[in-house]
Every structure is written in structure tokens, then in C-alpha cells.
Write a structure and sequence with these properties.
This protein is α/β, with parallel strands linked by helices and 479 residues long. Helices cover 38% and strands 15% of the residues. The chain has a 9-stranded parallel beta sheet. Strands 7-9 form a two-stranded parallel ribbon. Helix 13 runs parallel beside helix 14. Bound molecules: 6-O-phosphono-beta-D-galactopyranose.
């Protein structure tokens, strides 16, 4: 495998799934702090008021807050030069409406960035990874309300002012496209409900969905412009959940269905952020969903001035679509699609398709003039078993190593194809709470954390076999 010099290798996390310390030092509660755990058949419930009997997995998560030095040292041991994390908006601005951030929150991220630097690891920071302040959710229906744009910009501009010399790579909204009206799965149902004020069982209000997205596009574009105006050295990126979708058959109607699905699910949000304008097919899409966003005078200029510098996305699997009755359904955490008879799947039914990653990278490259791109989430959620051999804890996870090797090879092939891929961050390189199900037993990590679904565990860390596999891939790529 061949990778360009300086290629960024690392892992990706989100504060709500990893950080813990949910109310430490005055931190406010964010949307995810109100979410209970669920499982593959039970959607995560969002409680307006905390139930003292219930367990909220984000509260403690896997405690990066208390373990960041130990964890970063382990990341460095794997050879990383990048670490994707999110800043927890409510650790800085507890309700989202304060004018000044909490000193303790600022100090925490100062320490994290300094520790990363000491290990030669570049932070890649997501400004919003489902951590909307709950106060904005209950008071304004969050992103359904335009006022959130300004609240977000106060926060994002503070972050850029404070950390522009410590953080070169920034992402605005994680998987912003998951707010599309048809994203209809456990997590997106909960999120859209809270972004738009829809109740879980009410039919989706498509208008609110498009408006909530529009407001996030505007907040993102304003943040990008602010960065470009003040700190030209930083790189600003989008983040799309890439739902790679194939036609199930060669019936031309299936081909067209796949094209529409890609436009609706992937390109709509990506095009706005990369090209700075709604794409031509937005009209068709809005018509299909019977609603369109309220685009006010001045909005188009804001979008045009906030184009991102690099393109990032998550890629876990591919799906199919067909206009015929045959074909079986499958579900990701955000989207539904059809199964592909040629592919195998994980324990959670996510189909494994490394060639689909190569295809996706090439699609992004050809659509956006070979913009620098980064795969900022890719990974394999599985049940792990801890065994003790000669008094040492071992986790043998060949399934994870196989997935990693196959996707690293696909990356290398796509780079060979000519695509400008600058980095790769594995999702959940240390075990974290699952976003979709809130489970701990759906583990992605190269590093095991002793934390379980019932809240038990002493949080100690252990290297899995895949830890050494990733270490080797990184080292080999630099030879
Ligand atoms: C993405 C999210 C992540 C992450 C990942 C894996 O959609 O950006 O936050 O959790 O999916 O999904 P899950 O945790 O549901 O297995």
C-alpha cells in the first residue's frame, strides 16, 4: 500500500459518546445527555426531565475527561498524527446563550490540545457533533429557529479565536445531512424530533427539517467565512454521512432511483457546503417532499461566502435501492436501504464493502475537482470478548483487523486512482457509547474500555489485537 508523505492517520470520537464529565465544573446539559440507551430494536428515548432510575450513557461515557492523558499516550503509541474529537458546546456555553465561556471548560480543552501537541498529534475538531445545548432545544426547538445561528457563531468564533494556532483542521456539523426529512431511523428520529420540535410519533414536518438544515448551513458558512477572514492558515471542512447506494438491478428505473437517492441523501448537503449554493435538483427534491426552506434575502450570499476547504465524510457500508418488490431491507443508524446479496454484514447488519469506499472517494474527487478529502469515520462495531492469557487481558478481534486492512487497501487504491485523500480517522478507536443504540457492547475500539451497558466497569483500558494491526499499517505506510 502506498500513501503520500504526511498522510494523516488517526481516530475519531465525539464528546457526547466519549468525554463524560457531563456536569463537571458547571457544564450544561446537551441534547445527548437526555438520551437513554436503547438497542438495535429499541430507539433511544429522550427525556425532558431526568429520571433518577434511568441510565444516560453520555453522562460518564468512557471518561476521556478523566483519562485524556493516558488515552492520548495510547493513540501516540499507535503512531497517529491526527485525532478527531468534538468540543462539547455546553462545556463552554452551558445554555448556549452566554456571552462568555466557562473558564474551566476552556482550560480543559487547552490541556487536551497541549497534550496532543506534546505527542505530535494534530487535533481535528468537530464543532457540533449532536451536542446542541438542551436549553436551546427546549426553548427554541433548536435549529428549527434562526436564532440558533447567532448562538452557534458566538461559540464557534470563540473556539477559532482561542485555538486557531493549536487546531488547524475544523469541521462544522457532524453528518449534517442526517437531518434530511427521510432519514428515518432510531437516532435520526430522536435528533430530528429535537431539532425541529416534531414529536417522535408525529409525521415528520418536512418544512421544519429543511429549515433546520438551512439554518445549520448558514451557521456553518458564517463560521467558515469568519475563519477565512481572520485565520487563513486553518482548514475548514464539512462532514457528510455518506450513504453509498447502488441500484439493485440494471433496470434503468433502479439506476435513476439510485441517482435520486445519492442526490437527496449525500449531495444536497455536500453541494451547499462545497459549492456555496443549493444545487439545481433541490427544486425537484423539495417538490418530492412537499416543502422547501425559507431562504431569506441575504442567505444566498452567506452560503456563497462560506465554501469549505476540504471535504470529509463517514463511510461504514453501502446499501442498495430498487423499484421492484424483491430485495431485503437493511438499516444503518440513520438510514434505511436494501441489502446487497454480494456482501457480508456486521453483527448489527451493516454491510462490509471496502470497494464501495474506493468508489465513494472517486465520486467525491470527480464531483469536486479533486478537493482534498478525508475519511473521518470508518469502523466496525462488534461484540468483543476479553480472555485472560498468562495473567494478561487479551481481546482477539480479527474481524476488526480484517475490516481495517480491507478499507486501508481501498484508500490506497483510490489514492492510486489519483484521488487527493489527505487523511483517515477510524471511528471509535477507543470503545465509546454507540450513537445509534446507546450501547457499550457495540464496540469499535482498538482500545478496550471496561465499561458496560448497565453502567458497571472500572474504565481500565486494554489494547486489543487490532491496536497492533493499526500500528503496523501506519508504520508500514511511512517506510
Ligand atoms: C455516525 C456518527 C458517530 C458514530 C458512528 C457509528 O453516524 O457520526 O457518532 O457513532 O456513526 O454509529 P453507531 O454508534 O450508531 O454504531
Amino acid at each position: 500500500m502506498a500513501f503520500p508523505k504526511g498522510f494523516l492517520w488517526g481516530g475519531a470520537t465525539a464528546a457526547n459518546q466519549y468525554e463524560g464529565g457531563w456536569d463537571a465544573d458547571g457544564k450544561g446539559d446537551s441534547l445527548c445527555d437526555h438520551m437513554r440507551g436503547g438497542d438495535v430494536n429499541t430507539p433511544r428515548q429522550i427525556d425532558e426531565f431526568f429520571d433518577p432510575e434511568a441510565l444516560y450513557p453520555s453522562w460518564e461515557a468512557t471518561d476521556f475527561y478523566g483519562h485524556y492523558e493516558e488515552d492520548i499516550a495510547l493513540f501516540a503509541e499507535m503512531g497517529w498524527n491526527v485525532f478527531r474529537m468534538s468540543i462539547n458546546w455546553t462545556r463552554l456555553f452551558p445554555t448556549g446563550e452566554e456571552a462568555e465561556p466557562l473558564a474551566a471548560g476552556v482550560e480543559f480543552y487547552d490541556k487536551v490540545f497541549d497534550c496532543l501537541k506534546a505527542h505530535g498529534i494534530e487535533p481535528l475538531v468537530t464543532l457540533s457533533h449532536y451536542e446542541t445545548p438542551y436549553s436551546l432545544v427546549s426553548k427554541y426547538n433548536a435549529w428549527a429557529d434562526r436564532r440558533c445561528i447567532d448562538f452557534f457563531c458566538t461559540y464557534s468564533q470563540f473556539c477559532l479565536d482561542r485555538w486557531h494556532d493549536k487546531v488547524k483542521y475544523w469541521l462544522t456539523f457532524n453528518e449534517v445531512n442526517t437531518g434530511m426529512p427521510f432519514m428515518n431511523n432510531a437516532l435520526s428520529t430522536s435528533l430530528v424530533q429535537h431539532y425541529t420540535g416534531n414529536t417522535a410519533n408525529a409525521p415528520r414536518d418536512n418544512k421544519l427539517c429543511f429549515n433546520a438544515l438551512h439554518h445549520q448551513f448558514l451557521a456553518g458558512a458564517k463560521t467558515v467565512k469568519y475563519a477565512h477572514d481572520h485565520y487563513p492558515e486553518v482548514m475548514m471542512g464539512n462532514m457528510t454521512a455518506f450513504i453509498t447506494t447502488y441500484p439493485l438491478t440494471c433496470d434503468p428505473a433502479d439506476l435513476l432511483a439510485a441517482q435520486y437517492k445519492l442526490q437527496d441523501a449525500d449531495w444536497y448537503a455536500s453541494d451547499v457546503q462545497v459549492r456555496g449554493a443549493y444545487p439545481y435538483y433541490a427544486k425537484r427534491l423539495w417538490k418530492d417532499y412537499g416543502a422547501e426552506p425559507d431562504i431569506l434575502p441575504g442567505d444566498e450570499e452567506i452560503l456563497a461566502e462560506g465554501c469549505v476547504d476540504f471535504f470529509t465524510y463517514s463511510y461504514y457500508m453501502s446499501m442498495t435501492i430498487t423499484t421492484h418488490d424483491d430485495g431485503e431491507e437493511m438499516a444503518g443508524n440513520m438510514s434505511l436501504g436494501g441489502k446487497n446479496p454480494y456482501l457480508k454484514a456486521s453483527d448489527w447488519g451493516w454491510q462490509i464493502d471496502p470497494q464501495g469506499l474506493r468508489w465513494t472517494i472517486n465520486e467525491v474527487a470527480s464531483r469536486y475537482n479533486n478537493i482534498p478529502q478525508m475519511v473521518v469515520e470508518n469502523g466496525f462495531g462488534a461484540f468483543d470478548e476479553v480472555v485472560v492469557e498468562d495473567g494478561v487481558e487479551k481481546i482477539h478481534d480479527p474481524y476488526r483487523s480484517d475490516y481495517l486492512k480491507a478499507h486501508a487497501a481501498a484508500l490506497s487504491d483510490a489514492i492510486d486512482d489519483g484521488a487527493n485523500v489527505i487523511g483517515y480517522t477510524w471511528w471509535g478507536p477507543i470503545d465509546v457509547v454507540s450513537a445509534g443504540t446507546g450501547e457499550m457492547r457495540k464496540r469499535y475500539g482498538f482500545i478496550y474500555v471496561d465499561k458496560h451497558d448497565d453502567g458497571s466497569g472500572d474504565m481500565h483500558r486494554a489494547r486489543k489485537d487490532s491496536f497492533f494491526e493499526y500500528q503496523k499499517i501506519i508504520a508500514d505506510s511511512r517506510k
